[in-house]
Amino acid sequence: MATAERAIASPRRAGALHGAPARRARQPSRRPRLDVVAERNVRDRTRRRQALMLRGLGVALVVGALAASAAAHAYVASQQQAVDMRQIEVAHALLEQQTLQVERAQLEAPSRVLYIAERRLGMVLPPTVTYLPPINPGPSVSQFQHLVAAQAVASAAAKASKQTKPTP
After folding, report:
1. How confident is the prediction for the chain on average, in pLDDT?
2. pLDDT the model gives residue 106
3. Closest by Cα among 83, 107, 106, 102 to 94
4. Rounded CA gap, 10 and 52, in Å?
């Protein structure tokens, strides 16, 4: 009975007796081996990490600058293409303007006007040309309105001066 008493007293063994799996004995956890590290080694690692970070930052900065430069170059190229198209349009417009000016000059030529007047419209040249002397048409409408306004002011001033003068 000593074993039964022991089994009752020890819960591990009691479970083992009744068919429950026995618990494994606790094993010490595996910890990494701790070493005393010299301060110099810590500083060296820190410097290497910082240098690596700075290199990475430098590379990122250079890549970013190159990407910005490429984007700016693409923008300038597209704008140059638009400028070239506008210059072509201006050149075509100038060519058309010159063509129209030549055509207008041909249509306004005195010989052409005289030809159309005589042949198509049946007009004839007069034997002599008589010039009429210029006449004075009188004041214009605006000049007449200023004249009437000036006369009205003058008459009002004359009436006002008569009323302020005492009569003897």
Report:
1. 84
2. 95
3. 102
4. 59
